Amino acid sequence: MSHLRGIFIVIEGLDKAGKSTQCARLVANIRDKLNKPVVQMRFPDRTTPTGKMINDYLKGDTEVDDHTIHLLFSANRWEAAPRIRELLLNGTSVVVDRYYWSGIVYSLAKERDDLTFKWARGCDIGLPMPDRCFFLDLDPTLARQRGGGYGEERYEKEAVQLKVREKFEFVFKKEDHYHVTPLNANMPVEQMEKMLLKWAESYFQQATLSGWKID
Ligand code: DGP
Ligand code: NA
Ligand code: NA
């Protein structure tokens, strides 16, 4: 008897690129159209103790040193890693809204000489690797115009978003490019939804337990 492990999908992008919508729809489609068990997660998970500290920082209620907050975001992912592994091994797929790529780029956007790519990447080495990361790419000028503009949180400013986008491009060129598929997020929601579902469907078709491992 063989059973397939779940697939691990990450959706990355700038603020307001449509990640949350696409995650929710992909999860519903995997469950209802492909009839596979699936769980949706997001980082930062603001419900845990590290998540509460991160939330206070994002709201501007606290000031936290740049390295320290980077480590907290990373810890917020690490504390979920055993659950992600367990779900995948038990055959449940996992769709995640943001992952370590966000971790790197939001820190690199601060442009500190002592906060390097190597340091930022290092903290998340060893986390479960997704089968695929979809990067919903959207010009920050267009993103800003979406649904009421940016909110009030720390990074939700056009100048920051432009920097973050530049850093995403830099990071995807640098490493893990084979895990990442950039998608132009300036397309109708339904079209993007269909593309992601199609990808998941064909991935399930190709997959066999023997060919899959978690690294
Ligand atoms: P979200 O809940 O997806 O809107 O994310 C909240 C904000 O936190 C968003 O501006 C992106 C930022 N963010 C997400 N992950 C990380 C991370 O690992 N490090 C840093 N510095 N910022 C992050
Ligand atoms: Na946000
Ligand atoms: Na979001």
List keywords for this structure.
215 residues; Rossmann fold; binds sodium ion; single chain; alpha/beta; 9 helices; 47% helix; five-stranded parallel sheet; globular; binds 2'-deoxyguanosine-5'-monophosphate
Please describe what this structure looks like.
This protein has 215 residues and is of the alpha/beta class. It has one domain: P-loop containing nucleotide triphosphate hydrolases (Rossmann fold, 3-Layer(aba) Sandwich), CATH 3.40.50. 47% of the residues lie in helices and 13% in strands. The chain is built from 9 helices and 5 strands; from the N terminus they run βαβαααβααβααβα. The protein has helices at 19-32, 49-59, 66-78, 81-89, 100-108, 117-122, 140-144, 158-174, 189-206, and strands spanning 8-13, 38-42, 93-97, 132-137, 180-184. A 5-stranded parallel beta sheet has the order 2-3-1-4-5, with helices on both faces. α1 crosses α9 (189-206) and α5 packs across α8 (158-174). The longest helix is centred in the last third of the chain and has 18 residues, at 189-206. The protein is globular, with a radius of gyration of 17 Å. The two termini are 23 Å apart. The mean pLDDT is 93. Residues 19-20, 97 line the site of one sodium ion. One sodium ion binds at residues 15, 153, 156.
